[in-house]
Amino acid sequence: MEEYDLFPGCVIQNRIPYIEDSARKVFDKLGIKTSDAPFGCCPDPVGFNAVHHKSWMAMSARNLTIAEIDGRSIASLCNGCTQTLKAVNVELKQSEEEKDSINAVLAKIGREFKGTISVKHFVQILIEDVSIEKIKEAITTPFTGLKVACHTGCHYARPSHIMQWDDPMEPKCLRELVEATGATAVDYDEEVLCCGAGVGNTEEEPAMQILKQKFNSAIQAGAECFVVICPACFQQMDGNQRILKKMFEKDYNIPILYLTELFALAMGYKYDDLNLKLHRARPQALLEKYNAV
Amino acid sequence: MAVIDFEFRNSIIQKDLGNTLAYCYQCGTCSGACPVAQVTKGRYNPRKLILNSLLGLKENLLLGAENNFNIWGCTVCDTCDEMCPQNVELTEIFILLKNMSVEKGEAPEYYTTQAKFILEHGKAIPLAPAIERRRDQMGLPKAPKVDKKEIRALLKETGLVKIIGPLEEEKKEGVK
């Protein structure tokens, strides 16, 4: 199997490292090999790109040159990092003009973008390098009966002409991966609705309105938890339930699991091994039902 | 009455990010699909942003720091781009508008603060000692050190420092 440079992204690495831990555990079980590299900020496609587009491209291109020197493609644990790195990689590979313009600034720090590697979201690696069949073989503690609301998040497959992966408005891969653990992915109306984190940088209330809409739709469909693949969505959905409670007087208390946490649990790790007590909406009661505590 | 600013419109259309602007025929699919437009009753309205950009009505777009929700209400979900029947790359056009808003000093503080963190630490979220200890406890490898000096040199070269200002420590060095 191909070896990758791991790009955990700064939210996972420096704020919620228990998710990195679960990813590393799952990658070991499935034989996905990664190396660490001194990457800078990806940087954030919602924030930094909005401040100065050229700086966003240059920072992203610099990261790509680090992986190019290593001769390894990038495995990203985060939607935002994936979108930033992939968008710039695709753009610079397609446009000589853009490439020359970015290489002119990179030259000042002794770097050059060559376009020799690719960028993948870890979901793509699970599907393409490992396969659903191999994942099923690694499951020891199935989640038969667990009803999951899948939430891919926006930057996983959009914009589709850049991401060129899965379906941008009806994503399928996350559902397949969740169902590989024996769980059921429920159908809910707001599956592709944004988590609201982006607008939350400007105003809290619309962000919470969107989140509420998403939660209500999933719960109505019978979901017992969400499974996510983006740390920004994770923080918005797990960390902000107390704001929802304050604003709308409704205590959702619905667990949000990262896909790698669900997999690690299904592969035999327990609640404490994965530091799941660090979640704001603690999944303990739910996981007790499935012998995962 | 707002004045048409032809240069403004061209400054969008002539850029790679903005060259799909002219394809818009104002069908409103974007606003119909926009989650923020729904919950704010149109206070954020992507169709109007495109219309004002097309007409070159800059005054209707950059309304000052107090009224920046028309631009910064975008949650960057990329749904409008996906749904647009004319393949207008709305989110990319909005990046240009946001960049202009930053230059005018009208952006929400969150955005410029994050940019300053990236300039200073090389990352939007630097590694705090408490998290470093937690990583050790979990047996995670040390987070690789980021070359901050190189990143600062790069962001000086791209022009970011000119827009958001130099770091405090570098201001002092400049005085010496």
In brief:
The complex is a heterodimer of chains A (293) and B (176). With 293 residues, chain A is α/β, with parallel strands linked by helices.
> CATH homologous superfamily of the largest domain in chain B, by name?
Alpha-helical ferredoxin
Per DSSP, the total helix count of chain A is 16
Low-confidence stretches of chain A: none
Give average pLDDT of chain B, whole number: 94
CATH architect. name of the largest domain in chain A: 3-Layer(aba) Sandwich
Instruction: Kindly report how far apart the N and C termini of chain B lie.
Output: 50 Å
Order of helices and strands of chain B: HHHHHHHHHHHH
Terminal CA distance of chain A: 32 Å
Q: Radius of gyration of chain A, rounded?
A: 19 Å
Q: Which topology of the largest domain in chain B does CATH recognise?
A: Fumarate Reductase Iron-sulfur Protein, Chain B, domain 2
CATH classification, class level of the largest domain in chain B: Mainly Alpha
Write structural notes for this entry.
The complex is a heterodimer of chains A (about 290) and B (about 180). Chain A is of the alpha/beta class and about 290 residues long. Chain A has two domains: about 5-120, Glutathione S-transferase Yfyf (Class Pi), Chain A, domain 2; about 130-290, Rossmann fold. Chain A has 16 helices and eight strands. Chain A has helices at about 10-15, 15-30, 50, 55-70, 80-95, 95-105, 120-130, 130-140, 160-165, 175-180, 195-200, 205-220, 230-240, 240-250, 260-265, 285-290; strands at about 5, 35, 75, 120, 145-150, 185, 225-230, 255-260. In chain A, α4 crosses α6 (about 95-105) and α5 (about 80-95) crosses α6 (about 95-105). The radius of gyration of chain A is 19 Å and the shape is globular. With about 180 residues, chain B is mainly alpha-helical. Chain B is built from twelve helices and no strands. The longest helix of chain B is centred in the middle third of the chain and has 14 residues, at about 90-105. Chain B is globular. Chain B starts with 5 loop residues before the first helix and ends with a helix. The model of chain B has no long low-confidence stretch (mean pLDDT about 95). The chains are: A alpha/beta (about 290), B mainly alpha (about 180). The interface between A and B is large, with 62 and 65 residues.
